[in-house]
Fold these 2 entries.
Entry 1:
Amino acid sequence: MMTDTIADMLTRIRNCARIERPFVDMPSSKIRRGIAQVLKDEGFIWDFEEVDTVPSKTIRLHLKYGPNGEKLITRIDRVSRPGCRRYTSYKHLKPILGGMGIQILSTPRGIISDRRARAEKVGGEVLALVH
């Protein structure tokens, strides 16, 4: 049984980005689809899709690399953990690496990036840091 599915997702992405695989598969869930949508909207992955497999659906993320094979995801970390939740207001969200990175938040309006959270003036639980 897996207790932290978000950490599992981030670890799979981190490992596949290190060996420069074109895609990564993982079990699908609503929160994983939300994180994948944020990564797509912010330009860290090309696309994602849900594949019907047995016994449950699988989500496939198509990773994105630069024109010369540079990794776009150099670091991806879990911030809020099951044992220590991290919440923040939109006022305390600072740009990561001068705007080159993002924080992924779980808010009452769904899973969104820190840029969108500042624009909509909404805070929440900081799930991950990507740059």
Entry 2:
Amino acid sequence: MSEYYYITRNSAPFVKEGRREITEAEWRMAVAADPDLAIEQPEESGPRGASSGVWAVWHSYPGGYPAWFVLLRDGDVEVKGMDDALFEKFQQLATALDARIFCETGKEFA
């Protein structure tokens, strides 16, 4: 079973009070600045369904299949599963968004 990982500007993912959200405009700018990524909506049968947020895809992901990232409606970015390549890309995005990386258990990654 894969864990979910998050990019957030908050003290942890799912924080409700005093949220500092990543905006859709900021997300689109960060994705546009990365030549490996593109804003694309998955088919409805895709990961979590297309309606859950603003999706970005990494078609050239070295894992052999497209990797999907989503800016959720609560202003955090999510990806399911993590390997070295995804972590490096997630670090680049977190830096571009002035944010931090956490896994679903609340562990922060530097």
